[in-house]
Design a protein that fits this description.
- The complex is a heterodimer of chains A (388) and B (155).
- Chain A has 388 residues and is of the alpha/beta class.
- Chain A has a domain of 133 residues: 3-Layer(aba) Sandwich (Peroxisomal Thiolase, Chain A, domain 1).
- In chain A, 36% of the residues lie in helices and 19% in strands.
- A 10-stranded mixed beta sheet of chain A has the order 3-2-4-8-1-9-14-13-10-11, with helices on both faces.
- In chain A, a hairpin with a 4-residue loop joins strand 13 and strand 14.
- Chain A starts with a strand and ends with a strand.
- Chain B is of the alpha+beta class.
- Chain B has 4 helices and 8 strands, in the order H-H-E-E-E-E-E-E-H-E-E-H.
- Chain B has a 5-stranded mixed barrel. In chain B, strands 2-1-3 form a 3-stranded antiparallel beta sheet.
- The two termini of chain B are 27 Å apart.
- Classes of the chains: A alpha/beta (388), B alpha+beta (155).
- At the A-B interface, helix 5, helix 6 and strand 5 of A face strand 4, strand 5, strand 6 and strand 8 of B.
Chain lengths: 388, 155
């Protein structure tokens, strides 16, 4: 029987391209303030997600470096690698550790240090997410496979390329209204359609831009979390699942089976109805659409139309990515899953300021985050609950 | 990422021999070897098998990479999702030097799997990678060139 586990404390760095700071610097700056807020001997375990470290810096075992720099070398440190979903994997592992009674409190740190590379090289980081044994030797890239999925989606559902623009427009609007974004303004769907085509029907904006960023969360057993924080948020469910990694091998490439299974496991009998908000990966527009449809928020082929009508925007019946997600806030490679959890802690806990979702302020309110690895080869779903 | 010549040698059956994996129980074809068949659940029944040589284009894109601070995309490559005869599916590049012109017109067109050079721009010190691409038949290609006004070079 798992012990009740809560999210207690959070911190995050604004996504940017900062050549002055290393991955270790980012870890210190994001986790240092949390370490100062809790007694030194309270953190029993450290979980690190830093999948870019090996790809960009050639640094394996980045977790050891982070532990050293944070003064936590004496506690057990576990590094989780699940591509761009590493942060969500680290969160799940930390919750399991605390829930199993192996730790009272665990610090989870996700670091994305990518700005040492050019935009083209940063985009190529995503190529590490496709099946390197089968897909890469055929000359395929992450962008190419996303483009194929998007084209297949439009053809099957008789939609126009411009219909995809509502994903970026929705995420950008939420991000700009929420106040944490790299965007100078929220582009309209018409503006998004005019962006340069990178993998038609997908344009540049459809791919979330990769940034340097870091997020840290303190996960604790529920009674301790109530001592440490004024408004902790309960972990009400976890679900993780995988799918065939070769996209062409999937029975239906437009159904993200991992997302469906993970969300179903996390929500259980409760289902997805009545969620205060939904956090879903927006590394690429087509992946957000397929995830939303695969978990049953909308019927297949209808998400773009629902987005056009306002679904997902602040104030709609179901806000999707209230902080703008990776497309609106900036994409931290391996940090976005933990950023989703941070958003849940703010929304269901202490408050998210300008982007606060009204429904999330209600006692007992629930929210779901769904983090995809690559093109849905894995999915991590987490159900959060505001204490009643 | 640099080319891995050992991985190319290891994958020569798939890349040069047009091979995939067939489940000995349900006969379904897959691109990846799996211990458990994703179709019927049979265990340890995967065996090397030739992929169907022909199929039809189900989806297409022309994927490149954006260049920082410039409204440009470089390294564009036409890519297609092919429904192979017999039920299997493969995503791969479109062959032909004039594929950029033809790409927009290949939807639903018949193609065959052909062994072609994968990357054009590689370091002189690296081996030339070869693998499977989708190739149009001569008649189809000629008809598409006429319809698109393409003036591409002969392959």
């Amino acid at each position: 029987m798992m012990r009740p586990v809560s999210l207690a404390l959070e911190n995050a760095l604004a996504p940017e391209h900062d050549w002055r700071r290393s991955a270790a610097d980012l870890a210190i700056e994001v986790a240092g303030p949390l370490c100062q807020r809790v007694p030194p001997d309270l953190i029993d375990a450290l979980f690190v997600a830093a999948p870019a470290a090996l790809l960009v810096d050639g640094q394996a075992a980045q977790g050891a470096v982070v532990a050293d720099r944070l003064g936590l070398a004496v506690v057990p440190c576990y590094q989780l690698e699940a591509g761009d979903a590493s942060g969500a994997a680290a969160l799940h592992a930390a919750v399991a550790q605390v829930g199993a009674g192996l730790a009272r409190a665990a610090l989870v740190v996700a670091v994305s240090k990518v700005s040492d590379r050019s935009e083209r090289e940063r985009a190529a980081l995503c190529d590490s997410l496709i099946d390197r044994e089968v897909e890469a030797p055929l000359g395929l890239t992450y962008q190419a496979l996303c483009g194929l999925l998007a084209d297949l989606y439009l053809v099957r559902h008789k939609l126009k390329p411009g219909d995809l623009a509502h994903v970026v427009a929705k995420n950008a609007a939420n991000a700009v209204a929420g106040g944490e974004t790299f965007l100078p303004h929220a582009p309209s769907a018409i503006e998004v359609r005019r962006d340069i085509p990178v993998a038609p029907p997908l344009v540049r904006s459809d791919f979330a831009p990769l940034f340097d960023t870091a997020t840290a969360l303190l996960v604790a057993e529920a009674p301790l979390a109530r001592e440490l924080a004024a408004a902790p948020v309960e972990i009400a469910g976890l679900g993780a699942a995988g799918d065939l990694t070769v996209v062409a091998d999937r029975p239906d490439p437009l159904r993200l089976e991992a997302a469906a299974r993970a969300a179903s496991k996390a929500t259980g009998a409760r289902g997805i109805d009545g969620l205060a908000f939904l956090e879903v990966s927006s590394a690429c527009s087509i992946l957000e659409l397929l995830a939303v449809e695969s978990i049953g928020v909308t019927a297949p082929g209808t998400a773009t139309g629902r987005y056009k009508d306002g679904l997902g925007r602040a104030g709609s019946p179901l806000c999707i990515n209230p902080g703008g997600g990776a497309q609106g806030r900036g994409f931290g490679f391996g940090a976005s899953g933990l950023e989703q959890a941070r958003e849940a802690l703010l929304q269901l806990g202490a408050g998210a300021g300008k982007r606060q979702v009204a429904a999330a302020s209600q006692p007992g309110a629930c929210a779901l985050s769904l983090c995809l690895a690559g093109l849905g080869s894995q999915a991590f779903a987490t159900l959060y609950r505001r204490p009643a | 990422m640099s080319h891995n010549v050992v991985a190319t040698w290891r994958g020569r059956g798939a890349l040069l021999g047009r091979e995939g994996w067939r489940c000995g129980a349900c006969q379904r074809l897959w691109l990846a070897r799996r211990r458990v068949c994703a179709g019927c659940g049979a265990v340890d029944r995967a065996e090397r098998a030739a992929l169907p040589r022909r199929g039809k284009v189900a989806a297409l894109s022309v994927a490149g990479a954006a260049v920082e601070h410039l409204d440009q995309v470089t390294g564009r490559k036409p890519v297609v999702l092919v429904e192979l005869t017999g039920g299997a599916r493969i995503a791969c590049l479109l062959a032909h030097a004039d594929s950029m012109t033809l790409a927009t017109a290949v939807r639903d067109q018949p193609v065959r799997l052909a062994v072609r050079r994968i990357a054009l721009a590689i370091d002189a010190s690296e081996p030339i990678p070869y693998g499977l691409k989708a190739a149009l038949d001569l008649e189809t290609r000629a008809a598409l060139k006429a319809s698109t006004g393409g003036e591409g070079k002969k392959e």
